[in-house]
Amino acid sequence: MRLSDLDRKLIVSCQPVPGGPLDRPEIVAAFALAALDGGASGLRIESVRYVEAVRAVTRAPIIGLVKRDLDDSPVRITPTLEEAAALARAGADIVAFDATRRPRPAGVRELVEAVQREGALAMADCSDEEDARQALAAGADVVGSTLSGYTGGPEPVDPDIALISRLRRLTPHVVAEGRIRTPDQAAEALAAGAFCVVVGSAITRPEHATSWFVSAMGAVAPQPATA
After folding, report:
1. Of the N and C termini of the chain, which has fewer Cβ atoms inside 10 Å?
2. What residue ranges do the domains of the chain occupy?
3. 200 CB contacts (<8 Å, ≥6 apart)?
4. CA separation for the pair 177, 37 (Å, rounded)
5. 3-206: CATH superfamily
6. 114: helix, strand or coil
7. Geometric angle at alpha carbon 162, from 43 and 160, rounded to 5°
8. Does residue 88 contact residue 64 with C-beta atoms inside 8 Å?
9. For the segment 22-62, what is each residue's pLDDT rounded down to a tens digit?
10. Is there a contact between 122 and 95 (Cβ–Cβ < 8 Å)?
11. CA distance 25 to 154
């Protein structure tokens, strides 16, 4: 895969709610194919098992990652060297990992090297500009705005367009990701300098998308009865 294949393109994150009714390999693969039919150019897939399932049905570019809770670190996205390498061997073209400056089982440079040894590209999921700067210095091929707003404090509602713009000053290969829920927001991220845009819950997590509608409708005051 060449990075140019994803230039100004949409990547759909097919990550079902863990334990939800759609959390099955054949459904994740079906979501992936449906997204590609709709015009997506790439996919973001969680777990080695699901990367294998999706790779079996398409040759489209895959960003692979593992999410796992650790007892001794807040890092959840591809925390170990073994998981990073396994994702590449399973068929991920790009392996994403948490590149935040938090206690971690494996260093960013080690993760980059583990991914690249397997012939894949290394994507640093960042929370701020300094994360990205250090990840690029460690050899990361791509940086993403994925973890902006997820390392402490209340979770924002809107995507971090300002961070996307700042990351673009560091590298042309910026993946816009995180809370992009509408076509207008995706276009705004691209206009801010994103190389490509990832959309997840708005497309492939109907539980989340449904809850947005329910919440918005619940905030509307009842209309007074008319005679």
Report:
1. C
2. 3-206
3. 12, 13, 14, 15, 44, 177
4. 21
5. Aldolase class I (3.20.20.70)
6. helix
7. 45
8. yes
9. 999 999 999 999 999 999 999 999 999 999 999 999 999 99
10. yes
11. 32
